[in-house]
Specification:
The chain has 384 residues and is mainly α. Helix content is 58%, strand content 5%. It contains 13 helices and 6 strands. β4 and β5 form a beta hairpin. The longest helix has 42 residues. The termini are close together. It is a multi-pass membrane protein. This is FIT family protein. Its main location: endoplasmic reticulum.
Length: 384
């Protein structure tokens, strides 16, 4: 007995007898289902900028709790060693060095020059052009400026109250009179440099957090635009609640402001490195340990009260950096079902294998409709 295998598709042409080889005519008839649009190819410049941004993030976004501990620990240990074992004099031990004269003495001005436009551009983008929300974000910098002004004036007041003139005769009771006569005023001089350098660095870190997840906004815009133009079914997306006007404002603002935002972030990263270096110089060559440690402790306390307590409290303005009309930071990826599986198969649609329609199943369906019974793959016994 020799068994002869019956062809699986007796009614099909010889060119389409393979089980998974589609017929050209059938392939053209099937509807091609859409999927999410692909991102544009990145240029060499985009890749280089991305590498620089990644390096800057490593510099700026160190764990803040660890950085605060390093600040306070260094102010205590290094400053104490500098008081007991004076370090050799260098260019940075001079008060008239370039970095001290043109950067540290106006440190808060440099910080505002970069953080203010960065906060304006990022908040305007994520708030979809709503200016009242942008003003709310700027309240943070106004509070920081008021804090800087108050504490600097307070340090000067403490020094003038708790101090004496170096003149032998106790005739100059005020600091201004003592200095006017050419003497020196010895007082409890809380370090304004230590305060402003630490406070500026912490403010830069917090305000720069808006850039975390910034590249993901481009993907959100592209996918949301595809959904809105094709009326595709999609689960809840971060941009789904935006009105057409808000969505258009987001697209335009993101494309226009992103290059400037990246440039400002790189500049803020460089400024943070400079502030940390000048803080080390202050620890080694200026003020006493107690004066620097108390100043640094005040800076950390102000940062904690504002960014960790006040701004983090819900429903109490201002919001934290990056808060706006939608959420884009720290979003978990949703395991979405592919579009082909989400859509129900209409009558006449065929299952697919690796993107190709299984035309063999259509031939079986045609055979069922014509003969009234399915064509099965059986072995027929023949006599030898």
């Amino acid at each position: 007995m020799v068994s002869k295998r019956r062809p699986l598709h007796p009614n099909s042409s010889s060119s389409s007898r393979l089980n998974f080889r589609p017929n050209v005519a059938d392939t053209q008839k099937t509807d091609s289902k859409g999927s999410k649009p692909l991102p544009d190819p990145s240029s060499v410049v985009d890749i280089l900028v991305m590498m620089v941004i990644h390096a800057c993030r490593k510099v700026v976004f160190v764990n803040t709790n660890i950085k605060v501990a390093i600040y306070l620990g260094s102010l205590f240990i290094i400053s104490l060693l500098a008081d007991v074992l004076p370090f050799p004099k260098t260019y940075f031990s001079r008060k008239d060095n370039v970095f001290n004269m043109y950067f540290v003495k106006i440190a808060w001005g440099w910080t505002l020059i970069l953080t203010l436009p960065f906060a304006v551009l990022t908040s305007y983008t994520v708030c979809c052009g709503k200016r009242e929300k942008v003003w709310t974000h700027l309240v943070r910098l106004a509070v920081a400026t008021a804090s800087w002004f108050f504490w600097v004036k307070f340090f000067v007041f403490i020094e003038s109250i708790y101090g004496v003139c170096t003149a032998k005769a106790d005739i100059f009771q005020t600091k201004s009179m003592c200095l006017a006569k050419g003497y020196y005023w010895q007082g409890f001089d809380l370090s304004g440099h230590a305060f402003i350098l630490i406070y500026s660095s912490l403010v830069i870190i917090e305000e720069s957090r808006s850039i975390i997840g910034w590249e993901g906004i481009r993907d959100m815009i592209r996918n949301e635009e595809h959904i809105r133009t094709t009326d595709s079914f999609s689960p809840s997306t971060p941009l789904k609640t935006l009105s057409p006007k808000e969505f258009d404002s987001l697209k335009q603002s993101y494309e226009t402001f992103t290059p400037f935002i990246k440039g400002l972030f790189i500049a803020l990263s460089c400024l943070t490195v400079l502030w940390d270096f000048m803080l080390l110089s202050t620890m080694l060559y200026f003020h006493h340990m107690v004066e620097k440690f108390l100043s640094g402790l005040i800076a950390v306390t102000m940062w904690f009260i504002t960014y960790r307590v006040w701004y983090a409290a819900p429903k109490i303005p201002p919001d934290l950096p990056g808060e706006g009309s939608f959420k884009y930071k720290d979003l978990k990826k949703v395991n979405e079902v592919p579009l082909r599986k989400r859509t129900s198969q209409a009558k006449g649609d065929l299952p697919r294998f690796m993107g190709m329609p299984l035309t063999g199943l259509r031939n079986q369906e045609n055979a069922v409709e014509s003969n009234g019974q399915p064509s099965t793959d059986t072995d027929v016994a023949t006599s030898s």
